[in-house]
Design a protein that fits this description.
By secondary structure, this protein is mainly α. The protein has helices spanning 8-30, 36-72, 85-96. Helix content is 67%, strand content 0%. α1 (8-30) packs antiparallel against α2 (36-72).
Length: 107
């Protein structure tokens, strides 16, 4: 599963578009049917919000698909850290030495 933070901007845009669409629908449903000019304007606004919602949802789906593709391209097994014997010995001697002030290879 893709981490949600990967697609957060697209998710927020879609969420905002959904809210705007719901608000436009509530405004349209509350208008007096006899007031046709206002009802027509509110219906046009609602349709515009629905188109914006469809666009935002499509962008979110694309972002999610791209993130999923990116995550699936990552290696499934952890990459091992390999220390050669000599390097391990140098590192351990630096760690255990009380008078060492800098890492091996830098001093």
């Amino acid at each position: 599963m893709v981490e949600r933070s990967t697609c957060r901007p697209a998710s927020r845009t879609a969420e905002r578009a959904r809210y705007d669409g719901d608000l436009a629908q509530r405004r349209y449903l509350k208008v007096d049917p006899d007031n046709r000019l206002v009802a027509d304007a509110l219906e046009a606004d609602w349709n515009q919000k629905l188109r914006a919602l469809a666009t935002a949802q499509e962008a979110y789906e694309k972002a999610t698909a791209a993130a999923t593709e990116l995550v699936s391209a990552l290696p499934t097994q952890p990459v091992p850290i390999i220390f050669t014997g000599a390097r391990m010995k140098r590192t351990m001697s630096w760690i255990t030495s009380p008078d060492s002030t800098c890492p091996p290879g830098l001093g």
